[in-house]
Amino acid sequence: GPKATGETCHIIIDHEGEFPYWEGQSWGVIPPGNREKDGKPHSVRLYSIASSRYGDDMTGKTGSLCVRRATYWCDELKADDPAKKGVCSNFLCDSTPGTEVVMTGPAGKVMLMPEEDPTTDYIMVATGTGIAPYRGFVRRLFVEDTPAASAYKGEAWLFLGVANSDALLYDDEFQEAKSKYPDNFRIDYALSREQENKSGGKMYIQDK
Predict the structure, then answer these.
(1) Could you give the percent of the chain with pLDDT greater than 70?
(2) Which phi and psi (to 5°) does residue 135 adopt?
(3) b vs e for 141-174, b when ≥16 Cβ sit within 10 Å of the residue's Cβ?
(4) What is the mean pLDDT of residues 20-44?
């Protein structure tokens, strides 16, 4: 929304089935070009994957990233400093269909969703773009038409902290999942610039 703190982009990458992954894993992205300080290639940046293993299109050949454009405020200009910006986040947010992306991975085992027991309860806590892996979880459990979704009988509880309601990410998807599965999916938002905690201060995720 217009009052969101910064620009966040949902980016779908077509990997042609060459980069299969599981929910909770990350991809590495290597932005093009070289570093100004030493002329060496840019290093890899890790981004949590924001889709299920099947991708948003359910083909198994795409994956999504949730990327906030990194900018830096200049007090003198009273605007974002054009000379300072996150190299990789701006590359991704400026990408267009057909842009080639150099990737590594997938990586990570810590965040994998345990699926052996379909009655497992999940508590998911995130702020901002940290919602990315949990979007993959929610899609797998409540959005997609798969045996895993049909079998799930536990409860998933999502806590998300952002500055205001305009900064909520994927809220439409989450609300739809909640309306379809009210006994299995719960959402709690902490809006630091719109809500107060019990002490009268700003509401942060830890206050929930």
Answers:
(1) 92
(2) -60, -40
(3) bbbeebeebeebeeebebbbbbbeeebbbbeeeb
(4) 91
CA distance 41 to 63: 25
Which amino acid does the sequence have at 189? Answer: Y
Q: Is residue 113 part of a domain?
A: no
Amino acid identity of 27? W
Here the tokens at position 137 are 């979880």
Pairwise pLDDT comparison (137 vs 77), residue with the higher score: 137
The predicted-structure confidence for 91-118, as pLDDT tens digits, reads as follows 999 999 999 999 998 999 888 888 899 9
The β-bridge partners of 79 are 74
In a domain, 2, yes or no: no
Residue 137 lies in a domain: yes
Domain extent for 153: 122-207
Report the alpha-carbon angle 127-186-54, nearest 5.
75
Structural domain ending residue among the three candidates 83, 107, 131: 107
In a domain, 117, yes or no: no
Model pTM?
0.87
- CATH code at position 69: 2.40.30.10
Cα dist from 100 to 15, 30, 59, 63, 84, whole Å: 10, 11, 20, 14, 23
Structural domain count, the chain: 2
pLDDT exceeds 80 at position 76 = no
Q: How many CA atoms lie within 13 Å of 127's alpha carbon, on the beta-carbon side?
A: 14
